[in-house]
Amino acid sequence: MSPPAALAVLAAAYAVFWLDLFLPTPAVAGTVQGWLAFGTAKNLLRIIGLSFLMARWRGFAWHGIDPLSLGSWTKLLGDAFLAALWLAAGALAGILFALAAGLENPLLPRLEGLEVGFLPVIVMVAASFSTGYAEEMFFRFFAPSVLEDAGVPALEAGIAASAVFGISHGSQGFFGMAMAFALGLILWRLRRRGKGLHALAIGHGIYNLCVMLLAAGR
């Protein structure tokens, strides 16, 4: 695939799956739980759409996604928790920098009102893991694979995909975008070291869920 064709494919896919991030939030997402439920619905649609696109266009294996084996759950969960720990370490470094610089991520005030209860936790779990799968499928597997196929070296492809990942967190302000970019690089590095989609997506989901649980009741 030529570089212009690869960029056209990525731009079209991004517009289809992620352009809503830059549009006004609908009234149905007015409450924090409504916002999370709405985000879960969007991510499920993204997962379905990306799965269809990857399967029909060169197949999952070409994009670096291996079939899930039931016999590998122990290693899978170990890799997932390792990914979550790496993300937590990156986030901690970002938090310390933010405290020193007097910065704040606008996402945290948005999560005010979350409570720890059966239904809220179910919504948090659904939002966390659907986000993990949707974002990892696109930014760590689909986008880098397309760029590398166009002749972009793996390092530059990973950086570019992570940069778009950061930009996609524009609602969280400059600090949120910078954090997302850094965490995206961590996840991309883990992918280059052999961690698969499910390990990264579950680890991403665990990290997201921990953030929400820590923010609950603020």
Descriptive report:
Helices cover 75% and strands 0% of the residues. The protein has helices spanning 3-18, 32-56, 59-62, 73-101, 107-110, 118-149, 154-167, 173-192, 197-215. The N and C termini lie far apart (49 Å). The mean pLDDT is 88.
The count of DSSP E runs of length 2 or more, i.e. the number of strands, is 0
The geometry reads as globular
Question: How many separate helices?
Answer: 9
Q: Major sheet, described briefly?
A: none
Distance between the termini: 49 Å
Helix residue percentage: over 70%
Helix and strand composition category: mainly alpha
Order of helices and strands: HHHHHHHHH
Task: Specify Rg, calculated over alpha carbons.
Answer: 17 Å
- The poorly predicted ranges are none
Overall average pLDDT: 88
How much of the sequence lies in strands comes to under 5%
Counting copies of identical and different chains, the oligomeric state is single chain
Write the layout of secondary structure elements.
Blueprint: H1 3-18, H2 32-56, H3 59-62, H4 73-101, H5 107-110, H6 118-149, H7 154-167, H8 173-192, H9 197-215
Short description:
This protein has 218 residues and is mainly α. The protein is 75% helix and 0% strand.
Annotation keywords:
9 helices; 75% helix; mainly alpha; 218 residues
